[in-house]
Amino acid sequence: MITDRFRAGLRVGAAGLAMTLPTACLVLAAPSASAAVTCGNTTFKRTFYTNTSFSGTPKKTDCDTTIDQNWTGAPVSGMATNNFSVRWSLTRDFGSGGCFTYRLSGTDGLRLYVDGVRKVNKWTNTGDAGNSVPGTFCIGSGNHTVRVDHANWTGLSRVKFTWPASSDSKAPLAPTGITTSYDAATGKATASWTKNRELDIDHYRVLVETSTTGIADWDTTGTSTSYALPKDGRKYRFCIQAVDKWTNYGATACGPYVGTPDQTAPAAPAVRTSDVTVSTDLGTPRVNVWLGQVKPSDGPVFTLWRATAEAGPYTKVATLDLRETPDEQYLYDETPAEKQTYYYAASATDAAGNTSARTTPVAVTTPDTSAPGAVTSLAAKADPDKVALTWAAPADDAVRWQVYGADGTATPTLLGTADSAAYSDTTAKPGVVRTYTVYAVDAAGHRSSGVKISARRQVAPAVPVYLRPDADGRPELRFRVAADNDHSGGFRVYSGTYASTARTNPRACEPKELSATGTYIEYGCVLTDFRDSTDHYVTVVAVAGNGVTSTDLKTIRYDDTTAPPATTGLTATPQPWGTALRWDKSTAADVHAYWVRSGRPETVDGVLTCAGGSSEVVDGNVTSFQDTSGLPDGEERCWEVRAADGAGNASEPVTVHATEQDTRPTEATAPGSPVAGLEAVENTGDVALNWDTLDGATSYRVYRWNRTTSTYERIAEGALENPYSQQFRHYRDENAPAGTAAYYRVTAVYADGTESAPALAAVSLAPAA
Description:
This protein is mostly beta strands. The protein has 8 domains: 1-30, no CATH class; 37-162, Sandwich (Jelly Rolls); 176-259, Immunoglobulins (Immunoglobulin-like, Sandwich), CATH 2.60.40; 273-365, Sandwich (Immunoglobulin-like); 376-456, Immunoglobulin-like (Sandwich), CATH 2.60.40; 463-557, Immunoglobulin-like; 571-659, Sandwich (Immunoglobulin-like), CATH 2.60.40.10; 679-765, Immunoglobulin-like. Helices cover 3% and strands 49% of the residues. Strands 2-1-4-9-6-7 form a 6-stranded antiparallel β-sheet, with no helix packed on it. It holds the Pfam family PA14.
């Protein structure tokens, strides 16, 4: 800026200054035309001169993107047709540099300079013929100047310069100026960058990556691009890589990250069937869902859902936020009911509030954790054999009952377990008060409170067997008492005129034990004061150790000639092992035994009878008999049963008929076996086989008939020696099938491996007691 003071100085010395610096004043006042024009860094600045020496002030300065001119007249208004010059100059950053194959052609003067170094010099007046000069120049990275000069002396003015990049191995520079923006409405992110300074750029490689990994890539020839980002709350950025025409990939440059709103639900948490358990340590069921394999980043909030049907509906029962309790590994359902099947599923919720789908439901049945109700209406009925307890079951899940008993002040002990609402105690000591406690127990083993009741098993009566004169004519009394009853207080004998008054007159009797079985003890004594009595009936009373006596009296007539009534209820049931006989207990008090005879039906004079057979004596306390005397081979059988008292009076026989089952093998056994003496005998549930030793036999084989497969199955092989005698062979079948008839074959095996014809034996095995 020229100030007033400076202007005053000029006026004072104006004459001298004008003479001394005339040219300098003109330069300051009139800047050159080329300085006023600015062209882009990829565009040539073009200047026109009115001479061919590029001197003086340019006629015109402008910008030219391509050097390709053909002037037939003046190139610029105000210039002559001939004797002018034009200069093109470009200074720019060439990035990583490269090599360029050029061609400079035209008329008259042509020159090419690179960084001031002349590459082409055709500076003559060619007229209209012209020149064409090819060549190559290479430059390094950074800023360089390319200049083309053209002079026209006469005729046409033509000039053309092309300089495409030639193949190189230099990688382009990384893009710069990368910016990123995000449009939340569309979900698109846009990246822009500065065009690469390389002249041989072909395209750009774009990679959209998160802070951890790339997810998409593509190519573009522009300097901006857009991409729709997933709305998952993550950060994304664009990374750009320049690629030249020779497929050299430059370094990658990345722009800033942009965040997206999280609208993507997380994946369902990994909850397996084995991760869901039930605990009862707190007294009630609690369902525990283990999340130990789940990372906080999967949530961080996890929800437990419950339903009573797999299809739902589901109700939220628990929530776990790992941001608040990072060390917790379980979701708990604290409110399930017992004995209920539930379906559990879990879901994850991320920090943005997006919730995943629920996991596949896991079915859980909660256990029984509460005790059943106590029994009601507990009652006790005592008789000489037992104390019978009955009660009403609680209306819940009790499945069995425990019965405890205690005599006096003793500690209660478990007597037994009942599957129904009744229990008979046969272990109580007759005449002794026993206190019973009954508990209800459910399937889970929980026990109710106990309900108590006291009862006393009656002392069993002494049962007279017979009363008759002995060899000396004295009245001899025999009677029995149950072996497990307490009769340590002895016995009392009475007589009377009638059965109803039998307990009138005490009688002298010193009982002595005569015999005993597992069920009864038989005593006998001589009534020394009864010889002249007119009483006809005698009874015996058993006395327990505590003085309690039996109350159920049994009487016997001294001159007993009356047989017991005929047996009733006789049945014969064919079984795979033989025949099961059953009958009603006799109503006569003095029944001593039952006589059982088995036979074959036979018709005599048109009357069906039961002939032959064998007889067995069954104790008077027993009302059944298992007949295994004949194999069940489908034959007609008959049985005759009589009741007999102690005086030897027997009832009329009662006969029953039945057809045996046929259990014989369906496979016939060939005759002619050399194995002799084979017999099968039942021995405490097993079957003992014995046969004669056969000369020439090296071993033996034993087979047993399998009714299920209808085949003889080999069950033993070898020498099968008898440990007591070489004369016989022996095998004990410890796996013989109880409750059926067992059929066996035994064969001999010779040295050449051949097997003899089989010998056959069979035995009936009653069912296990």
